[in-house]
Amino acid sequence: MPENMKFELTILGCNSAIPANNRFPTAQVLNVRGQLYLIDCGEGTQIRLRDNRIRRSRINQIFISHLHGDHIFGLIGVLSSYGLNGRKERLHIYCPPHLDEIINIQLKYTGHPLPYPIEFHITDPEKNQLIFEDKVVEVYTIPLTHRIPTQGFLFIEKRQSDSMIPQKIKAYNIPFKEIQSIKDGNDWVNSNGETVTHSELTTPAPKSRSYAFCSDTMYNESIVSIIEGADLLYHESTFLHSELEFAIKTKHSTSLQAATIAQKAKVGKLILGHYSSRYVELDKLLDEAKSVFPNTELGLEGKRFEVKMSKNK
Description:
About 25% of the residues lie in helices and about 25% in strands. By secondary structure, it is α/β, with parallel strands linked by helices. The protein has two domains: about 5-160 and about 205-305, 4-Layer Sandwich (Metallo-beta-lactamase, Chain A), CATH 3.60.15; about 165-205, no CATH class. The strands form four sheets. The protein has a seven-stranded mixed beta sheet. It has a seven-stranded mixed beta sheet with strand order 7-8-9-14-15-16-17, covered by helices on one side. Helix 4 (about 100-110) links the parallel strand 5 and strand 6 (about 120). It is globular and about 75 Å long. About 35% of the residues are buried.
């Protein structure tokens, strides 16, 4: 698929707590029509960016779910490498309170000031709200339930303009200056005062695509209404359901619970991740989830999940 049409998630790290079993902690990159967004930044993120041939320089927004080390310990390395590679562009980081303090004290005592500005956008993890938008996407926070303030992120692709039907432009002799207005949804009035409807002149734009990132969290049905209908859902699945008691104690989820959320939210596909290091093999986690929500896949490092364009009905 051409870069300007992509909606693709790349898993950079999928383990919980520590690097183990050839798995790194949480990090992902979402590509929306050529714009790259880094989601969490566990240890080893810049190594995985290199391994997956993803250019750091194309990332201008980083989204951090919470301040546990397995989600932020790779960040100072990424930021430092930006500086060593001569970055000048402003970098935006969307995060819960106090991440700016953590990063600034690291920079202060390592003696390596950065040659580019960082803007920290401090969020409220308890609220579902719009925190970022650009020309291709809107990003909303998803309040999660964990041991410290934690948020997920919902990425919703902005609707593209409808496409003009070339034959109609010629048939009605439509001036070029009117085309964008028609594509944006307006009817056209010709020189005789006759109205030609938008629907007659255009074909509908593709359906907007969406991705919901939910890690770390215990089972929480209140998020269902926020993520309902998402094309992709990443939901942490740290434990098998046989470890439910420990999952509750640590405020994590089981794979069966992740699948239950996916089922209730009627999402397109569920991606598992944030696996406990006790599991060398992950097949049992996948089987457990698929027993509830069949369209489930393991989130594995280097794996890419693409949502193809589809027509609006």
